[in-house]
């Protein structure tokens, strides 16, 4: 065992490229998937290797990571439906009141730039648990703040303290699942990420409407939920980071006890964090298979998700005179239904298309095979957003903009699942950096929408404003088309990053 570890570590230090292609050795045949093709990546023989965990235990861990990613936008956005009573209490405008959500959105996007390199050295669990403590304190500070300035300051730390699940959660999925099944399980993770802010509006709407609670409990309730989940993760969320040669499955770490996975040093410390590690996230932008899907996903998430969350209170409140609970149901439940149904046409379809291509190529798994599965999302995401905007403009029955939200959410889910799966297929060892970049792009673009979309709609019309954003979003499909055509050639020409090769 020790000799294998030394050989494997030497191989990583001397190598300049990495991929998940199987390297057959004379000592052992490659392990196969249910369809008879070599697994990518190759698992080790260690039963503590997350790739070797049982299906049900993997799903249990996946749900915890996904729920952490859900709670980030959820706890940030419970206040969304209560912008009107918040604005009245603090004597500010509705646009200014929306900063209580857009500020944590921004900091939740930036903070994982620190968590990603730290999680690659010290493990995912250590970051989840330590950052989560800050989330508890910040949520409590938001509820106790007695001034608008104090509230916004606390919300900065809410964004930081709730960002880990959103920033590196997808890396947990990549840690546990093989390439042939990533679409389905990554899709489950994406459903949670997408729905956090929207289900928050439902909960927040009824909370603010309750005379015994009021809008301030839209801060205290997230504090309670976040704290309870932190305690659950403390005892139930194991470490998923594992060092191995992904090509032949040779383990690079000593076997340890299963209980150690629930401590704060669940993996051996093979190296120290260096300043260069914090540039890895941005280094990944040199690869077209990262940059182009990132841009398309960021605009799609803002157009098909966040736009509805931050404008629902103003639009449904002013046009249909909805109260906070009705606003929450109109924007939250429609998105929830759209993403759930959309996932049926996302992850399973993406994996099936990949399987068909693998059979056609005699066992060669090409990540670009997933990309055509995005076409329905390309059509439906902007179409649903335009439908909502036009219905707002002409003040149709409230059901029509709700249908528009559902259609857009359906399309967004197809786009999101395939983007996450494609990028981690291309660069699995750098899944933490990829997850962080997707979160960064999603959050930073979404942050800007609160400043100009409502003023744009008031200056023109909802139909024009929503259509302009949708058209801009749709044009970025051109990057995905380029990857369908040249993606594999570009990846082979540029090679793979020379860091994190053993993850």
How would you describe this protein?
This protein is mainly α. The protein is 69% helix and 0% strand.
Largest sheet: none
**What is the terminal-to-terminal distance?**
18 Å
Q: What is the residue-averaged pLDDT?
A: 89
Helix/strand order: HHHHHHHHHHHHHHHHHHHH
Characterize the quaternary organization of these chains.
single chain
Q: Helical region count?
A: 20
Rg, alpha carbons: 23 Å
Q: What is the β-strand count?
A: 0
Task: Estimate the global geometry from the Cα principal axes.
Answer: globular
Strand content: under 5%
Helix content range: 55-70%
The helix-and-strand class reads mainly alpha
Q: Are there runs of 5+ residues with pLDDT below 50, and where?
A: 1-18
Short structural summary:
This protein has helices spanning 2-14, 55-77, 83-90, 94-97, 99-110, 112-122, 124-144, 148-161, 164-176, 182-209, 217-236, 280-283, 288-320, 324-344, 347-360, 375-394, 399-426, 431-459, 462-475, 477-494.
